Amino acid sequence: MKIKEIIEVLDNLAPPSYQESYDNAGLLTGDSSLECTGIICTLDATEEVLLEAKRKGCNLVVAHHPIIFSGLKKITGKNYVEKAVITAIKNDIAIYAIHTNLDNLLSGVNGRIADKLNLQNRQVLLHKQNNLMKLIVFVPIADAEKVREAIFKAGGGSIGKYTECSFNTTGKSTFTPGEGTNPHTGEAGKREETNEERIEIIFPVYLKEKLLMAMTEAHPYEEVAYDIIALANYFQEVGSGLIGELAEPMETTSFLKLLKQQFHLQVIRHTPLVKKEVKKIALCGGAGSCLIKTALSAGADVFITGDVKYHEFFDCEDRMIVTDIGHWESEQFTVDLLHEVLHSKFPTFAVLKSEVKTNPVNYFTS
Ligand SMILES: [Zn+2]
């Protein structure tokens, strides 16, 4: 199996177009046309993880954080990033990063955190804009089902947990075939009237080319009449952060104990416990302090994230509890997610979880 086949699965899981503009997700080193000898999943593709990959005979490291983030001008091995890149290239190891594109999926990094707290009624906290389009295509009635099916197969028509969504009306169309045409019905120079279906199907922007190709291939006309419309609707599954509810309200300190236990924390940094009990929980894996105000206006009792700075803690205005559980700690289960997805897709292939704990932050507690 080629590395690019594995990348295809990861790109389907979290389309690269969902990454933030500052990000650098995707294939960072290596040749994707090579045969894959094994996969290691990790949060950070450090030199130590790359050496582990080499030792275990794996030539693909799937990491959450892109080790090359802001660009490299020299590669001389002077810092940990350059060392990792040199180790990867010397040993023909491909590094693939699946970062904010996985953060921005309801079922991605944040979904895993929500699983650990058994949150219900989950929604994206801050939706990503301009991610949906609508295709409207006009098809002779006899061919409508074939065209609809092709669009569904290419990924169109999904709304939340519903698939194959479309709206269809019938009407009369007219056209006059010009010189040198080969019309499906009618003849050159004579106006043709025919009954057609107008099929309307919603789709995510990144599927546009694939969808259009599938639609035109299935369509019987040589000139297909269609509209593509950009939508202002939110894509329910895509955006940053997550908000959900505990099955039952919990006393605040009991909830913090649960959080500590589920994430194996030594310590939780938090703002004053202004709520006696909590139910509505907002969260964002990694550095999510930019969402504190959004969580507050969404009515969250608690906001869970990592990397909160002193002044940012004040943003909760003593109307919500902000907890900082640590960047690595909040994202630790992302490795399980990557491992599960790849293992279920390639059950007989070597898909490993790195044994290196890459968290550089320690707590001196005694
Ligand atoms: Zn992170």
Q: Key features?
A:
single chain; 366 residues; alpha/beta; 6-stranded mixed sheet; 12 helices; 15 strands; 28% helix; globular; binds zinc ion
Quick structural overview:
With 366 residues, the protein is an alpha/beta fold. It has helices spanning 3-13, 47-55, 80-90, 100-103, 109-116, 144-153, 208-218, 252-262, 292-297, 310-313, 327-331, 334-345; strands at residues 26-29, 39-44, 60-65, 94-97, 120-127, 132-140, 167-175, 192-204, 226-230, 239-251, 269-270, 277-287, 302-306, 321-324, 351-353.
Structure description:
With 366 residues, this protein is of the alpha/beta class. It is built from twelve helices and 15 strands. Helix 10 (310-313) links the parallel strand 13 (302-306) and strand 14. Helix 2 (47-55) packs parallel to helix 3 (80-90) and helix 6 packs antiparallel against helix 7. Bound molecules: zinc ion.
